[in-house]
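Renewal narrative, Specific Aim 1. Our central claim is that a sequence can be written position by position from structural information alone. The example that follows is taken directly from our test logs and has not been curated for this report. It begins with the structure tokens describing the chain, in the order in which they were read.
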């Protein structure tokens, strides 16, 4: 259960090497989170992330999880929930892809869609049902402003995030009144290994800033969090720009 300050005592991260997720875990462990599960493909990076959290005082464990292997999700995630209640699930896995390559290689584009959307639908529903059986918990889904409107520069990635965003919103509505809270997080450009080498977009942010916004959103029980907050206004305007004009914008 969450403590008196609203901090989850147990955390499950889907995408255990995500920089945003780990920044969030460090922030929560510094508060009062004690148990952290890192779900991801077995790797030295996953083990290193767990060890770093142990050094901060957390009981950090790893579990093998592959977003693309939906048939294994029930068993892999079921093991976590049989160990005890989970107060918060952070769905943080995803791939950016390579727009130019993916347009020429449809199977690469499909991989982006399957990872970012199909894998999230499978694992998200499994975790949501487990939280519902508990009668409490938060499911935090890392979406993206890229899902707000398809852009020429990244419409494959953006479309997968648009699907994820819509799914998470609908799931939140379906779980209303069950004791389970769903929060959608929409960061803009995040300076991370994932975006290294890419041209930085306006209003760029950091994993630490997203982590802070997640913690604040949890405390407020927000349903949608924009990072930075100014993006809410920006995207509201861009959403209504006529397509012929939008095509010519440097976005």
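The sequence written for that structure reads:
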């Amino acid at each position: 259960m969450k403590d008196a300050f609203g901090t989850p005592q147990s955390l499950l991260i889907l995408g255990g090497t995500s920089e945003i997720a780990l920044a969030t875990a460090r922030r929560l462990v510094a508060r009062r989170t004690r148990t952290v599960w890192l779900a991801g493909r077995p790797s030295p990076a996953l083990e290193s992330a767990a060890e770093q959290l142990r050094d901060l005082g957390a009981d950090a464990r790893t579990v093998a999880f592959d977003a693309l292997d939906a048939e294994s999700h029930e068993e892999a995630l079921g093991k976590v929930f049989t160990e005890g209640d989970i107060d918060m699930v952070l769905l943080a896995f995803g791939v950016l892809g390579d727009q130019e390559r993916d347009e020429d290689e449809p199977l690469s584009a499909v991989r982006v869609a399957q990872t970012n959307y199909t894998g999230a639908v499978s694992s998200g529903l499994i975790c949501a049902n487990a939280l519902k059986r508990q009668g409490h918990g938060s499911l935090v889904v890392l979406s993206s402003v890229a899902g707000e409107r398809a852009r020429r520069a990244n419409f494959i990635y953006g479309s997968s995030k648009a699907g994820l965003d819509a799914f998470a919103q609908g799931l939140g509505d379906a779980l209303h009144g069950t004791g389970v809270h769903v929060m959608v997080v929409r960061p803009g450009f995040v300076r991370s290994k994932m975006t290294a080498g890419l041209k930085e977009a306006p209003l760029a942010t950091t994993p630490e800033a997203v982590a802070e916004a997640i913690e604040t959103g949890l405390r407020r029980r927000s349903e949608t969090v924009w990072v930075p907050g100014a993006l809410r206004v920006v995207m509201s305007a861009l959403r209504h720009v006529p397509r012929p004009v939008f095509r010519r914008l440097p976005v």
